[in-house]
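Hey team,

Filing this mostly as a record. A colleague (T.K.) asked me to run one chain through the structure pipeline before their review meeting, and I want the input and output archived in the tracker in case anyone asks later how it was produced. No errors, nothing strange. Just documentation.

Input sequence:
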Amino acid sequence: MQLTIKEIRRPIDAELRLFEKHFIDAMKSKVPLLDKIMYYIVKHKGKQMRPMFVFFSALLSGEITERTHRGAALIELLHTATLVHDDVVDDSNMRRGFFSVNALWKNKVAVLVGDFLLSKGLLLSVKNKDFDLLELVSEAVEDMSEGELLQMEKARKMDITEEVYYEIIKRKTASLITSACGVGFASNNNSKEQLEQIKLFGEKIGIAFQIRDDLFDYGSHKPGKPVGIDIKEKKMTLPLIYVLQMASSKDKAWMINIVKRHNENKEKVNELVQYVQQNGGLDYATQKMNEYQQEALNILKAFPESEGRTGLEQLIAFTTQRKK
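Output structure:
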């Protein structure tokens, strides 16, 4: 039976409550509009999985310190900034079932809010001289920007191979989990070799996380978004990429035509979803997700048993088995 997030986070509940205070303090502003928006963002926060990765990674080899808390706040400030900016880029009006910042306050305000959050993260690190943690997070910002642009470039040509797909999601999604694990570990340990291992762990589980998300778009379990939304947005994800590689020239042309020219047609999108389901796209993506999950587990085995290792193992299971 899969553990819930509430059960997984129990050993670090007190730390997460303290983190929330750090995070809220880090978001404070002297501008009433900003404070109003920050309150709205905090009120509709997600599962806080990235701070959990920070804290459990810190517990792999030491204690959770004040520096760990600053690292977790830095990661969450960055994550929140990227979500606000992503909604502008994607022209999305909803986030976690609620109106997005750009839907309520328009794009100009949303872009500035994202910038404000990024600057708060930078200042938090610089003022406390956490330059090593800032370097880890800055690498993630670079990767996420490059990944988004690479996806846009490839989407126009519809020529995303499986190799390119992994490169995109490694940068777009996995980089932030990579940095969360790295920041947590580096907050109380200066082993460069072990840091590289825990970063690789974050990369593996981040890729598995994104594949799980891709599967939702093809009706795997109960998705947190409508089926076919990735196709509507012309996003080439692993189930579709695999089936395209295996399809005949005729079927391949038919699939690409739907994605390019009929992605707003619900009936045709559903036909494509069913084709992907019936031709092994979901099975293949699930297999690859499980491979990355196992690789992440194998990396953890090199670390001694601890509360941190157990927590990360449970997060791995949750990441690949979640229903939304």
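Quick notes for T.K.: The domain at 5-321 is CATH 1.10.600.10 (Farnesyl Diphosphate Synthase). The first helix runs from residue 5 to 8.
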